[in-house]
Design a protein that fits this description.
Layout: H1 10-29, H2 47-64, H3 68-79, E1 82-87, E2 90-95, H4 103-119
Antiparallel strand pairs: 1-2
Length: about 130
């Protein structure tokens, strides 16, 4: 199972390196290769962002007569990046999951949802202090 390590200091780096060496030893012993991906850490979207977004889906549904899940599906399709996924043996192009968004990407998505709601004169509850 893939594991992610956020490296904030020398100690974190040494821990990650020890894990990579251990995985490499196990993989090499059975003739397998190891994938290691390194990139800039981006804080994931927060639970409060997710809760607000789902509240908005419900509000939009109430004011338009649609189902919240249909609103969610449509807005993800309109505004989120797409990825290829294999579903039941077929490759499909689908929007990314919001759980895969960074905090900044989620803010951008939520701003686009707010703009669309304003265009349709849909009132959305504004959280006291939206995390930014």
């Amino acid at each position: 199972m893939p594991q992610t390590y956020v490296i904030r200091n020398e100690r974190d780096m040494m821990t990650a390196l020890r894990k990579v060496r251990a995985w490499w030893a196990r993989s090499e012993s059975v003739g397998k290769h190891l994938d290691v991906k390194i990139g800039e850490h981006k804080p994931p979207r927060t639970l409060s962002q997710n809760a607000t977004l789902h509240m908005w889906f419900g509000e939009m549904a109430d004011q338009t007569g649609a189902e919240p899940e249909d609103i969610k599906r449509e807005l993800k399709h309109r505004f989120l990046p797409k990825v290829e996924r294999r579903i039941l043996g077929k490759v499909r192009i689908v929007p990314v999951n919001t759980s895969d968004l960074s905090k900044a990407q989620m803010i951008e998505f939520m701003e686009r949802v707010q703009q669309l709601a304003a265009e349709y004169e849909i009132a959305l509850t504004q959280p006291e202090a939206q995390e930014k």
